[in-house]
Amino acid sequence: MNLKYLTIGAVVMLSACTDPKPEEESSEKTGGFDVSAIDSSASPCNDFFQFTAGSWIKYNPIPETESSWGRFSKLAEDNKIRIKGILEEYAAKEGQAKGSDGQLIGDFFYSGMDSLAVEELGTKAFDPYMERVDATTNMSELFALMAEYGYNNVSAPIGIGVQADLMNSSVNALYLEQGGLGMPDRDYYLKTDSVNKEIQAKYKKHLANLFVLYGMDEAAATDQANRIYNVEYKMAEQHMSRVEMRNIPALYNPMSLDEVKALAPNVDFDAYFNVYGLTFDEVIVTGPKYIKALNKLVKDIPFEDWKAYYRWHVLDAAVLYLPYEYGKLNFEFYSKTLSGTKKMQPRWKRIQGAIGGLNEQLGHLYVEKYFPEESKKQVEQMVEDLRSAYRVRIANLTWMSDTTKQKALEKLNAFTYKIGYPNKWKDYSDLEISRDSYFQNVLNMSKYLSEENLAKLGQPVDRDEWGMGAHIVNAYYNPLNNEVVFPAGILQPPFFDPNADDALNYGAIGGVIGHEFSHGFDDQGSNFDAQGNMTNWWTNGDKARFNALTSALSEQYSAYEVLPGVHVNGDLTLGENIADLGGLTLAYYAYKIHMDGKTPEANIDGFTPEQRIFLGWAQVWQKHGTDEYLRNQVTTDPHSPASFRVVGPMSNMPEYSEAWGCQDGDAMKKAEPIVIW
Ligand SMILES: [Zn+2]
């Protein structure tokens, strides 16, 4: 069950999960806006990103263990050091109550850090899994094995998972999705420019190297690699693109099992689903065309090639939990070649990265120690200010009819929010984690989470559940719950600083809150109503005007050049760009509402409160990345690169031009600004 492929209607995060991290302890002063970040030779009316981030970037090079670096990642890095402290504390405790949060995360971390035990075990625990692939004699057996290993997140051509039914968001439904590529996107296979050709060659080399390490001779390994690449290439040709997958209504294809089987008779769905033992009348197929195409591939591609393909994915799923050399090879391709990272992270960070399945438990221990309860009230007030500002904005829209406005306001009023941490914590006390074997712990954890997910099928949706650990530095909007969620981890500088002026905080965390609110009204979120159900609540005319505005925004971003010849994909990043533009606009007006009747805040460092709103947002996006990182980002990430998250929205805002005194013709003052929300 490849939950990682279950992207439909999934939560929309503030930023991609590009795990941040460097070595050194942070001692940087985080209060307010750090003026030393400014490049005074740049003009705010020409390039606000350069103005606000130029010096920061110059004096904060990308650490060798990273592919990008910014204020956001620096905070996440500081957080990792705190989390390390928690993990070490519990790893040092022996005899903790079995199944307690401390036992689970402590023993997991202990087993991962016990590198001698990992080396000594070698591939002994893993080998039987591979032997079972070798023992398969036909595609039916292989599909059954794909289902079984799906419990442990081994990537396969198809994957299933359970989440709220898009049309009836109070009940959980089963989804069937495409999957099974080893590189991050189909474009990596299909593009034929010189950079991508080189990546393709290195990928094949990576596959071969891994098989050699696993004991195969060079010639056989190269042969396997070529076969595997050929299988994945043919699958990539049939995969939906990321832009196609943004069209949520088109992904909603409920079918009976018989209908699915009729779509692809060569795929043994009985063998596949029997493993899970699920009872269902319907499964929602996100890409029927892909399933149909897979039918042909299953027949056309020789079984031995499919076997080689699956051997690779089984090995790939395990490499991070096997001896060091396996992880090193993985790093060489995925981090170095694809992202431009120079050095591997220290082991404790890699283990921390693997602990994701225990995020709830880790978050629990984190907030006990670090959550600033006093911040919660302040942020709640900001959420309501943002909502009030949105109400006024919607009421005053000139492009939307009263009929649709009514519905939009209904949705806005129904927004719920979660701040800090869950009201009730999950109980994982029957999860088996011990100090003995890291590999076994990872297997137990992934299976446990998969079973937890599948058990939800047909059950009512638990609206109290969190989709992110409380310690995580991020935020999200979940259209199916119509809720915005801000974990404790993000309520820290540069997002939220209890010691900073309100203008700065409204621009930063206020902008984030507005951003998440706006996801409820972006190209995807606008398909869902107040209850989180996918329904069309728009009149045709309003939808057409909305689409015209969003097309213009898409064009604006597609014109941004990231590297020579490499542009932002305006369609892929549309939802995030709508959210950035809406969010910052809302933050501006929420601040005005907040200050209404109060004594105006003083200028600080020579900047007016209005200017500081924009400085607050820009400070969050002080960030840079390697060329490889940027190339990967524009292909796979729905978020625009940091610089465009600053200049993109601001150049559309008359409020910005006014605050900074920009004139017609200035780059930061677009001649025809786009106003959506
Ligand atoms: Zn977002």
Characterise the protein shown here:
By secondary structure, the protein is of the alpha+beta class. Among the domains are: 31-61 and 372-421 and 470-660, Collagenase (Catalytic Domain), CATH 3.40.390.10; 127-321, Neutral endopeptidase , domain2 (Neutral endopeptidase, domain 2), CATH 1.10.1380. The chain contains 27 helices and twelve strands. It has helices spanning 48-59, 71-91, 101-113, 115-121, 127-134, 139-150, 187-190, 194-213, 218-238, 248-251, 257-263, 269-276, 288-300, 303-318, 324-339, 347-354, 359-370, 373-396, 402-414, 438-454, 502-519, 540-558, 574-595, 609-620, 627-636, 642-650, 654-660; strands at residues 12-13, 68-70, 158-165, 168-178, 254-255, 283-285, 416-420, 476-478, 483-487, 561-563, 566-567, 623-625. Helix 6 packs parallel to helix 12 (269-276). The chain is globular. The two termini are 38 Å apart. It binds zinc ion. Zinc ion binds next to strand 1, helix 21 and helix 23. Zinc ion (ZN) binds at residues 12-14, 515, 519, 576, 579.
